[in-house]
Structure formats: structure tokens, C-alpha cells
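INFO batch 0412 | record 1 of 1 | parsing
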Amino acid sequence: MKASKCSYHQHGGAATATTTGEDLADKPRHCEKVALSAVNRVAHKTVKTLTKGARQMVIWDDVTRSHVLRAIQDYDRLGPEAFFSKHGFAPTTTYDLVWDERRYPPKAILGTAYEFATGERLASRDFEGGKSGAVTVLGRLGFTVQARRPAR
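INFO prediction complete | emitting C-alpha cells
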């Protein structure tokens, strides 16, 4: 992975990383961390990301099982339509998060859990919902995510 100079000190703590051809091994430890935990500014929000090639991935380290449970409670309290409207997501199409014999939209729940954990709102386009995204993250947190049952 390549990264540019650390801009941490030049922007009051807003760290950024771009590709210039300089190896991370040539950077001080601080700059390496900045490059690996780049901060992506999208629509006036700050989302912790990891740059992998040209694609950026959300870093889920701050999200805990408690944040996910809080998102589930919010979904139950608001109902699907109000929850999707409030948090900016849509119904699930492929997978269901199964909790307490109920089914929830995994991407919407995880995105909302991230918002609760960090105070930063994710858009649906900011992360994957399938096996390489929300399904894996929720599984690591001890939740069951199942392929959606076909409509009858």
C-alpha cells in the first residue's frame, strides 16, 4: 500500500492519505497510521475508512454488540418506514439479521449501530451489505444473519 505525506498537522487533525508512490515503510509510524486509518470526508461527515486499492472500506472497530442491539431497539420502536426514513436506509433484499425470532435488515441495522457508536451517519453506498460487508461484521459480533427466505 502506498500513501502520501501525512497531512495531520496541516489540517488541525483531519488526516488524509493519497497515492504518490512513496512506500509506507518510508513514513514515520504516525503517518503510517494516518494512511491506514484515513479519514474520508463525505457530505459534511467524517467516516473512518481503510483504503484498499481505489476502494475505501469503513472501519467497524468502534461498533459493539450493544450498539447493534440499540439499533434493533430503535427499529422496533420506530417501525420499518420511520426507521428507514430517520437513518437513510431501505429494506433488505438478500439477507436478514435474526434476533429474538424476529428478522431485521442487516445493512440498515449495522449502519445505524455505526451512527450510534461514532456519531457519524453512513449512507447505504458507504459500505457493502452482503457477505463481504454487514453480514461478516454482524457475524463477528455474534449475530445470526441468514439468506432471505424467498417470497411465496
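INFO post-check: The first helix runs from residue 29 to 36.
INFO record closed
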